[in-house]
Amino acid sequence: MSISSYPVPQTAVHRLAFALGKALVEWAQTRAERAELRAQQRRERTVQTQEHRLAAERRRQDVLLEHAQWTHLL
What we know:
mainly alpha
């Protein structure tokens, strides 16, 4: 005898379908929120990397300028 031969109350089927649908919506929302969070973190890291590169370039220019001033004095 297969399981399909047992009658299943219609309300149980509806409750199960509703619970599955609700869980799927919550999963999709969580996934979207996490994707947005990762994208935001990527954007922040990009900005931070650009700032670090600019700061390094300014330091390099300062060193070159200081070196040029010292060599001019000698």
